[in-house]
Amino acid sequence: MNYDILVVGGGIAGMESALTLGDMGYSVLLVEKEPTIGGKMILLSKVFPTLDCASCIATPKMASTFHHSQVTTMTYSEVNDIRKTPKGTFQVSINKKATYVDFDKCTGCQRCEFACTVAIPDQYNFDLVGRRSAHIAFDQAVPKKAVIERYGSSPCSFACPVSMQPHGYVSLIRSGLFDEALEHILKFVPIPGSLGRTCSAPCENECARGELEGSLPIRQLKRFASDHYYEKYPNPKYGPPGEILDKKVAVVGSGPAGLTAAYFLAKDGYKVTIFEAEDRPGGMLTLTIPSYRLPSEVVERDIKNVTALGVEIKTGHRVESLTELKNDGFDAVFVACGAMQDTKMKVEGEDLAGVVGAVDFLKGVNRGDKIDLTGKTVVVVGGGNVAIDSARVARRLGASKVYIQYRRSRAEMPAFDVEIQDAIDEDIEMQYLKTPVRFTGKDGKLAKVESISMKLGDPDESGRRRPVPVEGSESSIKVDLCIVAIGQRPDIASFADNDKSKLTRWNTLVVDSTTLETNIPGVFAGGDVVSGAATVVEAAHAGAHAAVYMKRYLRGEQLPGEPLQQMLPVVDRNEVLKRQSEYRTLNPGKRKELPPKERVSDFSEVELPFTDDEARYEAGRCLDCGGCSRCGQCVVACQADAIDFSMRDEIKELEVGSVVISTGFELFNPSSKIQYGYDHAPNVITAMQMDRLLAPTRPYNTVLRPSDGKIPDNIAYVLCAGSRDCQVGNELCSRVCCMYSIKQAQLIMGSLPLADITIYYIDIRAFGKEFEEFYQQAKQMGVSFVKGKVARIEEGDNGNLIVQHENIAGDGKSERTEHDLVVLSVGMLPNQDALGLLSGGEIEADSHHYVKEVDEDHSPARTSLEGIYVAGTASAAMDIPDTILHSGAAAALAAAHVERVKK
Amino acid sequence: MSERRIGVYICHCGGNISDFVEVEKVRDAIENEEGVTVAKTTMFACSDAAQQEMINDIHEHKLDGLVVASCSPTLHTFTFRGVAERAGLNPYQYVQVNVREQCSWAHTDLKEQATEKAIYMVKAGIAKVRLTHPLKKTRIDTVPRTLVIGAGISGLRAAIAHSDLGISAFVIEKSDRIGGWVSEFGKMYPHNRLGSDLITELSEEIKKRENIHIYTEAEILTKSGSVGDFDVKIKVKNEEISLNVGSIIVATGFASYQPYEGEYAYGTDGVLTLPDFKELIDNSKGEIIYQGKPVKNVTYIYCVGSRDSSGEKGHTYCSRYCCNAAIHASLIANDVSSELNQFHIYRDIRTYGKYELLYREALQKGAVFIKFDEASPPRVEKSNGRFNVQVKDVLTFGEEIEIESDLVVLVTAMEPRENKAMNDVLKLPVSLDGFFKEIHPKLRPVETVIDGVLIAGTSQAPRNSAESVAMSLAATSKSASLLMKGYVELEPLIAMVNEDTCVWCGKCSEACPYSAIEKISSGEKEIAAINTAQCKGCGCCVPVCPENALTIKGYTDEQIRAMIDAMEVLL
Fold first, then answer.
1. pTM for the complete prediction?
2. A382-429 confidence digits (pLDDT tens)
3. Structural domains of chain B in order of their starting residue, each with its CATH number
4. Chain B partners within 8 Å of A812 (Cβ)
5. Which residues of chain A make contact with B471, given a CB cutoff of 8 A?
6. pLDDT by residue (tens digit) across A647-683?
7. CB–CB of B317 and A109 under 8 A?
8. CB of B357 within 8 Å of any CB in chain A?
């Protein structure tokens, strides 16, 4: 046996059982799902009838439990399963949830909490205020260690190909930490400026806010961060790394893939040389993407992020042989020369002058070739971003009519929606379901494009519906220029010839899908040269990915080696939306761009930047799906180096002699009693919230009502809210509500002496030791007790509330009484987690779903399964004194079981 | 004064302290204090690395005193005591100085002064540690036996629970039979098991065990010794027996309130207390016959002897069990004869928790509930052999109601049992309600101020049978936690008497809340002696001694004065 006794739940019942058993000399494992022990009691203000401060009673119990030599406390852990063994002992499976904080190092200084950029409703204050994702539950928490709350990967972060944790920089921007936002991005990719403009932003498709008013403009926020940073820092803050390794790496191609690989290799001290065939670096970023989308200065600044590390870029240097590079002393090579060769349509007349490939066309424009299309008609063939770019560039060069012919419909178009819309706004005519079948011309020069209409047939292997020509639908247009933008291929025949590199039938390089190593050892490849034409962000991902395995290779490690750590599973957007009962409506701002008439006159950037306020507003719409945003501020703040995001949940399998279940209760959620208005009237609160307002660690240092922060002076208590009420499915009495309401009334009279307090009740159940006296004392203090059930609570003027109720002890009439704050004395409900602890379902529940005590007369706390005992409110509603006694009983029975098992 | 070798560690607390207190300055200011051998600052004194460094220093420099200037002692006293212990230093030669809560956090706007204050606080800590001596915890060997007083359901269940844990139990019972109240009950709420069966089952269980001894017609005569090792004398019939036990469980139960003559016509035939009525229905079949006449209407009057706000006639407290018990009795009566008309005249129905189901069932079965206000209690008159009960019903807005009844059942209170003889021996304090007083209802509900003497069941407060059993098991847990380890260890920070100056005036004994000070003879004179097992080190005795003959170890006058002297510049 690993432990004599397992105690499940570290509230007052669990602590009492654990302490008692520990004192008896048994080894006890206490498992608590929250990051701190103390349960609900530690959250209370004072406790009836003695009016002791709850903290003063619970805190020493928490400390002595935690420090008890016989008690091991596992917080932030959940019991998955308990199985009885034939010996009478129990096999237990416990999930120790990742805290992302090394408890051995954490000192509880809370710096991570102050630095954290994610606010979450504070469950320890019953959502009256917020807390941080990195947090210590409250000041008296035991252990006083920080926990970083992560529900999983945020959908945006999970969708990002380079895992640059968009949630992280969004939350940094929200917090006004603009420099930090960009530095965060630079941890994942060196080209934020380019991505901020050209990224396909798969993150935005997953944004949970998309289910409400519209996704966050995550890409533009990235652009905002880079604009802000680049203006402030024209050059990177850093230089080459301190230690340079004696290993050389060649990178072929300076596009997004090459730059990113070079960046990560150089950061680790490798000497990196990039060979670029063209006369300026940047690959597609500078060669083909038009500057109205991506200004060349931005790319240049992005490239500085790489060159600042000491990376040398040799332009105008076309690599023909990879083995030669290795012979030149490079220890590893990364091939990222892209897919720069236009795909031909293979139709008649394609070699006429006036039929050009899109890459050739765009390259010429970006190179500064003088091209004048004034008054000309242009047809662009294709449906990708390159096609749209070509069309819009042609427009800017003066073309009077620009068509785009695409063989499928708009729905299938691979270009970004916003690009398509921009093109339409710029008077580019979209001709869907149409494709050229022939180019005709005069004197070797294009004159006409003859096209055929298509219809959509069955889906092809890409899942898109295959276009099928419609017979007899030919038509033709007179054109001056036709730009063919139907795809690109890598231009790497020389590698196949010189190096025997393996190519696919699409003329791309064959690589190992995990390591990105080609068939030549030490030569890796990624980006368009492997995938065919794809997005900038996918290319960057390939570069980052290859860098990981290249470093392993360079260190002489066996490839592939340890698998890379997976991200946490993605959080379900619907769960995110359910998490809060309501969200503030925050509409996305209107897209800011130059007006179409203005923008086609030159190559000025079309999309306009956010102001600081706009950026913070947009970032502020984030719903923090994953909890922690991974912004990394805690890592910077922690002086003890305790934050560890590589931590993962661990399953512990243990054997114990006996089990005490002390999983406590749940509070009735008054939302289901709609006539009490809890969900829509802000000044209707629960008694638990009032307890927080009265606690020594109270959030506002006084009692304020939520709607306007006014100090209330006429407070009503509605007893039996969710108890003794068959309408809400709970016919039981919750035992504590009368007394805690009387307690709160007394406390309020202390802190707000002028306040009137009315308690609406059915029966006052002051049944315990000194309870009746406590009740009489409240009456003498002037608390008004009205016998009568409250029927309805309506919101009146100024947030005040009209309580409709019977006044039985009066004349029995129904009355409407105005109060400025109404407290619902919510009852206790069973925490049904307790019943699921045994996968076999062997613990019987009573008719109200509490753990059943099968022999309450002789052995209270005994459950239906021998060796498993129940302590406190897991078995029935009860107050703290009864809970303590009940826990003592559970301890005695559990100990007796262990004695029997030991024999 | 012998040369001390003291290690001082001043914590940055990552900035919590060092942002406002210049910790290096503090270190510089104290490193030449007398006795200081090692003076260091540390980022986090509580971190494992820092703890290990302290342990190394204690070994290397043979330190005999440790001062840690960091946060509140409530947080880390046990941490650094542990450090000292692991390093072989007596843990009571370590002193905590709180320069966080009491200094850096309190003076965030006055950095210079905060630093100065911290310097003097640390100096005071050094002054105190210089005067520390090794202290040892007091250890008392315990005997694995308990004495249970009272053989009702609580006492019997406690005896069995002790036996389950290998602890022998001696049960003494004043009357000539075991089982107490429960053995006389028929069906009990909420599970409808017969009280007599419950007791029989326990008694069968006891017979199987060799380590339970029951003495009826037995009473405690004397008690001496202390927790873990009491010597008690008991009188069994006419015999005296001596027992040596480690703990005592008091489970002496309750008495039932007896209405005074004329209280709701009590004394008249047909006005019964609830226990009397229970007996009547437990023995009825088919119909209820009282004094030869069939009973058609029963009226219950609640809170008889309970909730008397004046406290003049009855008790001020609520007796907790009675709403449940009365409603349960009425359900049984209904089972006996469903023709019966039952009227409950109550003040508040307190069927708390799951007992609400009893109330609901009674309502469904047609019982009539009438609420009265304490100011206008019901009136009971007898005429023509029947009772006329008149009451002003709150539920019908003050309507005067008259009920013809064959029986009137007074739902009577539970009250403390008269236990004077026993308590003259045990000296347990009682609460205002007359029941035995626990130390604290939440922290230590079964313990009394007499260490090792525990209370259970209705001797502490009104409660029902199942709740009493729960409490007796809780008392068993507490008793077992004292006895199972084989010894109890007590903090050494307790009072001590200077035998030379003490003249026994008794003032300290009066001030002591734990009865830990006794008079003893010492040579020629009488002096105070501290019962080390009972003293809690609270210090109440120290200031009342006119001769200044008392001191708390670890907080001697000399130490306090030295600390004040070290801060003199500040004053």
1. 0.88
2. 999 999 999 999 999 999 999 999 999 999 899 999 899 999 999 999
3. 6-135 (3.40.50), 145-253+417-487 (3.50.50.60), 257-413 (3.50.50.60), 492-553 (3.30.70.20)
4. 396-397
5. 885, 888-889
6. 999 999 999 999 999 999 999 999 999 999 999 999 9
7. no
8. yes
